[in-house]
Amino acid sequence: MQDQTSSLLDEILARSQITPLFQPIFELASGAIFGHEALSRGPQGSLLHMPNQLFPYAQQAGRLHELELLCRERAISEFARLQLPGLLFLNVSASLLSSPYHQKGMTLSILRELGLEQSNIVIELSEQHPYDHNGLTHQSVDHYREMGFQVAIDDLGVGYSGLRLWSELRPDIVKIDKHFVENIDHDDVKREFVRSIVAIARTLKCHVIAE
Q1: How many angstroms separate the CA atoms of 166 and 42, rounded?
Q2: Rounded CA gap, 39 and 23, in Å?
């Protein structure tokens, strides 16, 4: 089984066998599409089809950053081909910047080739991935901002460091973890939590996305 999975990962990376999916993000007031979050899937019906299998295995094999860059390239290309409206949200692990596979300017080159603007790309950073131990830093945020991208912090509310990260990194967008959104109509505590987040975001001129 291990050899079979290893060979499958080799084939996925060699043949770019990643399928991007796009989850729409809506403006609550108007119903208009604000953007799309790019999600990635391996070959249909394979052991590495779902992300909760694909990404941890790639990390275990020492090939996470190769996979992540492939997913980014495929997502940008497909987003452009489909001519989807709004911003494109790309998930990025904080440790990618220190990877030898991370080539500065690669994303900009792809965008120029496809006629997309950097301002339409949102780099979504999270420190909640179990395979990412470097944590979010000013370096990771500044790197992408200097390239003209917007920056979002994912999973706000998970763990104790979310609010500290928000105050220190000043992202353009924060995403509230779905735990605080599910059944919010029946939970006074969740409503107060989200109301506070929205109030802070207005002060900081930061967009809020509810998962």
Answers
A1: 32
A2: 7
- Residues linked to residue 93 through DSSP beta bridges, in sequence order: 126
Joined together, the tokens standing for residue 76 give 């940008």
Q: What is the rounded CA–CA span in Å between residue 27 and residue 143?
A: 28
**For residue 101, what pLDDT is reported?**
54
Q: What digits encode the pLDDT tens for the residues 61-91?
A: 989 889 988 999 999 999 999 999 999 999 8
Strand-pairing partners, residue 126, are: 93
| pTM of the model as a whole | 0.87
The secondary structure element, H or E, covering residue 171 is: none
d(Cα 179, Cα 183) in Å, to the nearest integer? Answer: 9
At residue 131 the predicted structure's pLDDT band, cuts being 50, 70 and 90, is: very low
Query: 84: Cβ–Cβ under 8 A, 6 or more apart, which residues?
Result: 22, 36
